[in-house]
């Protein structure tokens, strides 16, 4: 019996020793892994507070300005914590170009944060992790994103995007918008609404196959809902909801954004149903019809994992309608405001248009003969800085970039405002100066650091259409109107401070559009 007890005692001591050795091994290898990870040099940045991160160092209404300021201290690549979420910020033309173009695949994924997930899926996730949306173009990744982007680009090209087909649609819309401006007879008015309707009609004609009357209540509601949601997305309260989802149910701004979203998709659903009921596969009117044709082919082939489903249609169309309305309309509003602010520039543009075009309709082929006008349009885009923080990316794999280690799945912000205001690229980055795009002979000069549409695999799908719209609308309206401040307001008093929003629109203002006698 004593022998048995001694054997059990020895066995228990051996087991205990074995467990102890196992724990020590685990601790050793864990600490070794931790030490090896610590050897990886991560981008520098301000020290974060628990939970809050660096929120106290950020202006949530204008975070791009805070990040631009931080880049001067921490360099062209640095880490910042938006609450508990760690992000890497890329600043300056060379760094952003290297990331988005040279290392396009490593930085190509979209970071699906809480806002984008809810807007695209319609429900609030309780998980505090990276969301993976599976619909549309802007907020999807992987096969779905590549398929929808490829389909959209090829279909838009077939429909004449960047060619004569879309040129005619834009020219037609300039005439409708001119009629609205003329109705004010030179008196002050807000340009934002009619310009938004005109620009939205261009993308509507391509996507749906027809334009809308500016008084159509459904159309007016859809444009308003999209623009309001983009504005609200940039507010501090919604940004906080994005970081701390439990705040959503307590925030009126978030509730309003969700209301606009539901109303928009309800009206879009009705519109898409009508288009499906009246479509002719042999004569597609717009992108929606082409989508229905592809959807039918998938169903007939018995595709196991179909991508041309109603959710993808809804969000792809929604993405195009929103992006195709807000950014170009905002740029045109900035254009008219800047012409009123700088009448000597407006005068020089009009003299060039009068000399080259006269009273005839301006065409895209005229752009090469209007170098000063082209330079002014580019400088408007540069200074307007419509999407200062780009849309967030995320890394597809672990990557060593410019001497730093960035882990797979890290949110990355390509700070576009740092490119458009890069002191190493622009002579006077913070002032309106068309000479940025002119050589010593007054000829237009293309600048590589001009990236308002981003770059790489996620470059804006509607870039060519937007460029065409800006040129044709701007030249047509400077040909027919002179923009001035309201009576009693001087050029110096016109405020160039952008309104708070996800995109940078001009602050609310009124202008006079005076008919010219060229």
Topology:
Blueprint: H1 2-39, H2 63-74, E1 77-82, E2 85-90, H3 93-102, E3 109-110, H4 114-121, H5 142-158, H6 164-183, H7 192-207, H8 217-233, H9 236-243, H10 252-278, H11 287-301, H12 310-341, H13 343-356, H14 371-384, E4 393-394, E5 399-401, E6 404-406, E7 411-414, H15 416-420, H16 463-480, E8 481-484, E9 512-515
Parallel strand pairs: 2-7
Antiparallel strand pairs: 1-2, 3-4, 4-7, 5-6, 8-9
Helix pairs in contact: 6-7, 6-16, 7-12, 8-10, 8-12, 12-13, 12-14, 12-16
Describe the protein:
It is a single chain. The chain has 518 residues and is of the alpha+beta class. It has one domain (42-515): Orthogonal Bundle (Cytochrome p450), CATH 1.10.630. It is 52% helix and 7% strand. It is built from 16 helices and nine strands. A five-stranded mixed sheet has the order 1-2-7-4-3. A two-stranded antiparallel ribbon has the order 5-6. It has a two-stranded antiparallel sheet with strand order 8-9. The radius of gyration is 27 Å and the shape is globular. The N and C termini lie far apart (119 Å).
Q: Estimate the helix proportion, in percent.
A: 40-55%
Largest sheet: 5 strands, mixed
Task: State the distance separating the first and last CA atoms.
Answer: 119 Å
Give the tally of structural domains.
1
Q: Which radius of gyration do the C-alpha atoms yield?
A: 27 Å
Instruction: Specify the CATH class.
Output: Mainly Alpha
Poorly predicted ranges: 1-37, 122-133
| Strands ordered across the widest β-sheet | 1-2-7-4-3
Shape: globular
What's the β-strand tally? 9
CATH fold group: Cytochrome p450
Structural class: alpha+beta
Provide mean pLDDT, rounded. 88
Determine the oligomeric state from the structure. single chain
């Amino acid at each position: 019996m004593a022998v048995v007890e001694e054997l059990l005692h020895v066995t228990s001591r051996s087991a205990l020793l074995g467990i102890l050795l196992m724990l020590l091994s685990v601790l050793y290898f864990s600490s070794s892994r931790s030490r090896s990870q610590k050897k990886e040099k991560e981008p520098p940045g301000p020290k974060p507070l628990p939970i809050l991160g660096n929120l106290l160092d950020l202006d949530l209404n204008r975070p791009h300005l805070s990040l631009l300021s931080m880049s001067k201290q921490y360099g062209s690549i640095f880490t910042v914590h938006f609450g508990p979420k760690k992000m890497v910020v890329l600043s300056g033309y060379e760094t952003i170009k290297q990331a988005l173009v040279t290392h396009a695949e490593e930085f190509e994924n979209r970071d699906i944060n809480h806002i984008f997930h809810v807007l695209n899926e319609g429900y609030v996730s309780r998980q505090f992790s990276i969301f993976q949306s599976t619909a549309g173009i802007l907020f999807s990744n992987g096969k779905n994103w590549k398929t929808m982007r490829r389909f959209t680009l090829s279909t838009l090209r077939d429909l004449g995007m960047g060619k004569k087909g879309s040129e005619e649609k834009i020219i037609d819309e300039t005439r409708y918008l001119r009629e609205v401006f003329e109705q004010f007879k030179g008196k002050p008015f807000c340009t934002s609404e009619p310009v938004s309707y005109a620009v939205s009609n261009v993308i509507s004609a391509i996507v749906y196959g027809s334009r809308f009357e500016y008084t159509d209540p459904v159309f007016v509601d859809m444009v308003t809902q999209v623009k309001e949601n983009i504005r609200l997305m940039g507010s501090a309260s919604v940004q906080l909801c994005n970081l701390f989802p439990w705040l959503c149910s307590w925030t009126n701004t978030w509730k309003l954004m969700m209301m606009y979203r539901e109303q928009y998709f309800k009206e879009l659903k009705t519109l898409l149903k009508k288009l499906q009921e009246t479509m002719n596969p042999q004569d597609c009117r717009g992108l929606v019809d082409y989508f229905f044709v592809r959807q039918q082919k998938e169903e007939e082939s018995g595709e196991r994992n179909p991508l041309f489903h109603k959710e993808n249609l809804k969000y792809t169309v929604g993405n195009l309608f929103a992006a195709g309305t807000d950014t170009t309309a905002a740029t045109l509003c900035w254009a008219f405001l800047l012409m009123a602010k700088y009448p000597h520039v407006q005068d020089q543009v009009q003299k060039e248009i009068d000399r080259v075009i006269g009273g005839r309709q301006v065409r895209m082929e005229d752009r090469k003969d209007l170098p000063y006008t082209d330079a002014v349009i580019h400088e408007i885009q540069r200074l307007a800085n419509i999407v200062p923080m780009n849309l967030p990316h995320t890394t597809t794999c672990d990557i060593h970039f410019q001497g730093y280690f960035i882990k797979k799945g890290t949110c990355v912000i390509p700070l576009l405002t740092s490119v458009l205001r890069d002191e190493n690229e622009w002579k006077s980055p913070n002032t309106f100066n068309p000479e940025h795009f002119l050589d010593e002979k007054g000829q237009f000069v293309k600048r590589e650091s001009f990236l308002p549409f981003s770059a790489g695999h996620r470059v804006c799908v509607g870039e060519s259409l937007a460029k065409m719209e800006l040129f044709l609308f701007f030249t047509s309206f400077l040909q027919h109107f002179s923009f001035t401040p309201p009576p009693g307001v001087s050029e110096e008093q016109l405020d160039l401070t952008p309104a708070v929003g996800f995109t940078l629109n001009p602050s609310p203002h009124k202008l006079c559009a005076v008919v010219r006698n060229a």
